[in-house]
Design brief:
Layout: E1 2-7, H1 17-23, E2 27-32, E3 47-50, H2 66-79, E4 83-86, H3 88-96, E5 101-116, E6 129-140, E7 147-151, E8 159-162, E9 166-169, H4 177-187, H5 200-204, H6 208-225
Parallel strand pairs: 1-2, 1-3, 3-4, 4-9
Antiparallel strand pairs: 5-6, 5-7, 7-8, 8-9
Length: 230
């Protein structure tokens, strides 16, 4: 398997997905936009992972690499390559396919529950309710043809599926204790009190078992979108 990762900032990496890929002896390549915006050919790529970041998909005037990145994501979807988007990555998939991305009514930062919404046959099924890690201030409309998979009290569109091989997650399932500390160290100034913003102390005291549970769910998502093509 060859997986290509689109990484936007050094402190948001693939987290627990690294182990899932290593167990499958995957060849993992990267476009790290904070270093070099060169994108590869999609030929031979079996999985595209689009990671998060503090920027907006609407920042094309200041981040010119966003436009070719969206084209790359759109072409991957059209070619039937499995694509997983995480947070900003989900917003990029949605926007690349013509959907609007805009500020959510409330910021959502911390560990809050989501509720499964999909009743579509053969769609990925989240647990009826589960607690996951959030860090976002924007949301998105669903792209045409997408199936909603989850919602939360603060944000209606938390996850979607397009076809058999594309899933966008507004929340983070890949987060490990190490990657959570990295985000806190770099984005802690975003912890402005709100109804869905936890304190730094609350975020730093989360037990390892909680991370292990969301990482297990991430493995299920990855196995699902690659199930018929790899």
């Amino acid at each position: 398997m060859r997986a290509h990762v689109l990484q936007h900032v050094p402190f948001e990496d693939i987290g627990s997905m690294a182990l899932w890929l290593a167990e499958r002896k995957a060849d993992v390549t990267y476009t790290r936009f904070f270093e070099n915006a060169t994108l590869p050919s999609l030929n031979g790529i079996d999985l595209v992972i689009v990671m998060g970041g503090p920027m907006s998909v609407n920042d094309e005037s200041t981040l010119p690499w966003l436009q070719p990145e969206k084209q790359f994501v759109r072409e991957a979807v059209e070619k039937g390559v499995p694509v997983l988007g995480v947070c900003l990555g989900a917003q990029l998939i949605a926007n690349a396919l013509g959907a609007r991305v805009y500020p959510n009514t409330l910021k959502e930062i911390g560990w809050f529950p989501i509720e499964a919404t999909s009743t579509a046959p053969n769609a990925f099924r989240f647990p009826e309710k589960c607690t996951v890690f959030h860090w976002h201030g924007e949301t998105f409309d669903l792209p045409a043809g997408a199936v909603p998979l989850a919602k939360s009290a603060a944000c209606e569109n938390q996850a979607f599926q397009l076809g058999e091989h594309v899933i966008g997650l507004q929340f983070h399932l890949e987060t490990t204790p190490e990657s959570a500390r990295s985000i806190l160290d770099n984005c802690g100034d975003e912890l402005i009190p709100g109804p869905y913003v936890q304190t730094e102390a609350e975020l730093r005291e989360v037990k390892n078992a909680v991370y292990a549970e969301i990482n297990r769910l991430m493995n299920e998502v990855l196995s699902y979108i690659t199930r018929t093509v790899i």
